[in-house]
Specification:
Elements (H helix, E strand, L loop, with lengths): L2 H16 L21 E6 L2 E8 L4 E5 L1 E8 L2 E8 L8 H10 L11 H11 L4 H19 L3 H4 L11 E4 L5 H10 L5 E5 L5 H11 L4 E4 L7 H12 L3 E5 L7 H10 L4 E3 L7 H7 L4 E5 H4 L2 H13 L3 E5 L5 H8 L7 E2 L12 E2 L2 E3 L2 E3 L9 E2 L2
Parallel strand pairs: 6-7, 7-8, 8-9, 9-10, 10-11, 11-12, 12-13
Antiparallel strand pairs: 1-4, 2-3, 4-5, 14-17, 15-16
The structure holds magnesium ion.
Magnesium ion binds next to loops.
């Protein structure tokens, strides 16, 4: 199905099939014809095409599986999304199976966010991206009903949204490497992946071209705590802001040892999933990276940000490869965080929404209700 048909017609059929509209519910007499007073969930797989292949150690990936979700209530539609990079353990089959089990038509009040999450947890554990897709659609729907974007509902100042980082990786070809570095010029922070060979070569190549601050994601790649500490000192001299997940997520004692000595903040990513992980992270990390596809969406992500800040921790906001739907949902939280890594929609070639923009390197939240997206026709 092409994206136009999916967004404009296909979903309506699915809505009808998943949950027939009923006008027999209590109170319907006062409602205009066609308003069901019930939540109707529908969904459709949508594969994300990557602009540039991800080169991994053993293979190459050119797509990310995704599922697009719509939640309808009284004619208002909220949009949501699940993105499933393979390493997180969810896929199109698991997400559609989970969503098929949900009966959201039992909720006549869409504002029962807490109860809807409790219900989703009761249906099956895990399935975090699947739950996030419903949560995002629900927030979009509620924001539209209230006619306000979520940053306003949360009382946040959009001016306080940080710059986003833009990720580049090592390339053995010096000309290609230089081209990649020059492409980061619109951004105020460059994120680099480390933990492989060539870590220092990559930093030196960047510093030959630009003084732009860098942040480093080691993706658990540093195995020796003394070498990790040496890298932190080296990076501190290279205008690095922080180091994300330097060591294995299970190496809590070594990470705590490193945190005590590192001149740079140490941020948890692979270690982090959901709210209970925030207190655990406080033992060994200076901050956390929150991603909606791991946190089950915006509701819990907000709680995680509040808890982390109350514990004096730094907060970073990340994403997967996502359309502007998921990234715009995340951007609503941006004024609460210290750093953002919201480049997921820039990495795909087949976005189906207009939403959050990066303006002069800064996360710029759409001035529209809900999560701020409109489907691209
Ligand atoms: Mg990371």
């Amino acid at each position: 199905m092409n994206r136009r048909n999916f967004l404009k017609t296909g979903m309506l059929g699915a809505i009808m099939a998943a949950s027939p509209i009923s006008l027999s519910a209590i109170g319907e007499a006062t409602k205009p014809v066609g308003k069901s007073g019930r939540l109707n969930l529908s969904f459709q797989p949508y594969e994300l095409q990557l602009r540039h292949a991800f080169n991994l150690a053993r293979n190459q990936r050119t797509t990310t599986p995704g599922v697009q979700v719509q939640l309808e209530y009284d004619g208002v539609i909220g949009y949501g999304e699940a993105s499933m990079p393979p390493y997180l353990g969810e896929n199109v089959a698991s997400v559609t199976e989970f969503l098929s089990k949900l009966d959201l038509s039992q909720f006549s009040d869409p504002f029962r966010i807490e109860e809807i999450h409790e219900y989703m947890e009761s249906v099956a554990p895990n399935n975090r991206a699947a739950k996030a897709s419903v949560d995002i659609a629900l927030h979009d729907l509620l924001g539209k009903i209230m006619n306000q974007p979520w940053y306003k509902i949360w009382g946040l100042n959009p001016e306080k949204a940080p710059n986003t980082s833009y990720t580049i990786s090592y390339n053995a070809d010096p000309a290609e490497m230089r081209k990649q570095i020059e492409e980061t010029s619109p951004y105020k922070v460059i994120k680099i992946k480390m933990g492989l060979d060539h870590d220092k070569e990559l930093v030196e190549a960047i510093r030959r071209v630009t003084d732009t601050p860098i942040c480093v994601d080691a993706n658990q790649g540093w195995t020796d705590k003394n070498k990790a500490l040496e890298m932190c000192h080296y990076l501190a001299d290279k205008n690095c802001l922080f180091v994300e997940q330097p060591m294995d997520k299970e190496a809590i004692d070594d990470t705590a040892w490193l945190r005590e000595r590192s001149p740079l903040p140490i941020i948890a990513d692979e270690f982090m999933q959901r709210l209970p992980d925030v207190r655990r992270a406080a033992q060994a990390y200076d901050g956390i990276n929150i991603k909606l596809m791991k946190s089950t969406g915006m509701h819990e992500a907000y709680k995680m940000a509040v808890l982390a800040k109350s514990l004096g921790m730094k907060v970073m906001l990340g994403c997967m490869t996502e359309t502007s739907c998921g990234v715009s949902a995340a951007s609503q939280l941006a004024p609460m965080v210290d750093w953002a890594d919201l480049d997921g929609n820039l990495l795909i070639a087949n976005d189906i929404f207009d939403g959050m923009k990066i303006v002069d390197g800064k996360v710029t939240i759409p001035d529209r209700p809900g999560i701020g997206v409109v489907p691209l026709a």
